[in-house]
Amino acid sequence: MIDSILIAPTIEGFLLGGGLIIAIGAQNAFILRQGLLRSHVFILCLICAMSDALLIVIGVAGLGTLIEQNDFLLKFVAIAGSLFLFSYALIAARRAFRPNVMDVGSQKAPSLRAAIATVLAFTFLNPHVYLDTVILIGSLSAQYVGEQRFAFGTGAVIASFVWFFMLGYGARWLTPVFASPLAWRVLDALIAIVMAALGLSLVWRFFIG
């Protein structure tokens, strides 16, 4: 049975991880396209999720521990993290007013080697992935200690696995839905709300509560 004190950080990590991952980008577009083609879906989704998990663990275990030991850094990260989350919320809200439709197109399925090389490039050559996983998630995990920090990181990892496999295997059902700008408006609006709520929770925890 899961300890009740671990539920909140797990949920917060899941929401943060999900909010950062769910966005119209090259990696998600590629996974969606591969899902439409039913080509190498499992291995590509696994690579994306495992890559995120590795970077999250590095952030939570390393950067989180470093920041936890310094009270000034902890508060600095709380301020910087909340500002980033509010900014991300504004960006998502702006996308909600100016939605884009993901163009999955139709093309010949690449070989397994080419597909793996492509998804690895989309993952590790994208500077935002390090900001989102190692820096942001790792930094914000410092608000928790011990098992709670592990739970926070676990929540973020679970969000990654859920999203990529849902996107890959649910592509044929998701594509008609997200062919509509309205669907992206709703999704981005929800992301904006979640990110803003997480930012407020940081401010409350360190400066008000």
Number of helices: 9
Structural class by sheet pairing and helices: mainly alpha
The value of Rg in angstroms is 17 Å
Number of strands: 0
Largest sheet: none
The run of helices and strands is: HHHHHHHHH
Cα distance spanning the termini? 29 Å
- Mean of residue pLDDT values: 82
For this structure, the quaternary state is single chain
The total domain count is 1
The global form is: globular
Strand content: under 5%
In terms of per-residue confidence, which ranges show pLDDT below 50 for 5 or more consecutive residues? none
Task: Tell me roughly what share of residues is in helical segments.
Answer: over 70%
Describe the structure.
With 209 residues, the chain is mainly α. It has one domain. It is 82% helix and 0% strand. It contains 9 helices and no strands. The longest helix has 28 residues. The mean pLDDT is 82.
List the helices and strands and how they pair.
Layout: H1 4-21, H2 26-37, H3 41-68, H4 71-97, H5 112-124, H6 127-140, H7 147-169, H8 171-178, H9 181-208
Helix pairs in contact: 1-7, 1-9, 2-7, 3-5, 3-6, 3-7, 4-9
Task: Produce a short descriptive summary.
This protein is mainly alpha-helical and 209 residues long. It has helices at 4-21, 26-37, 41-68, 71-97, 112-124, 127-140, 147-169, 171-178, 181-208.
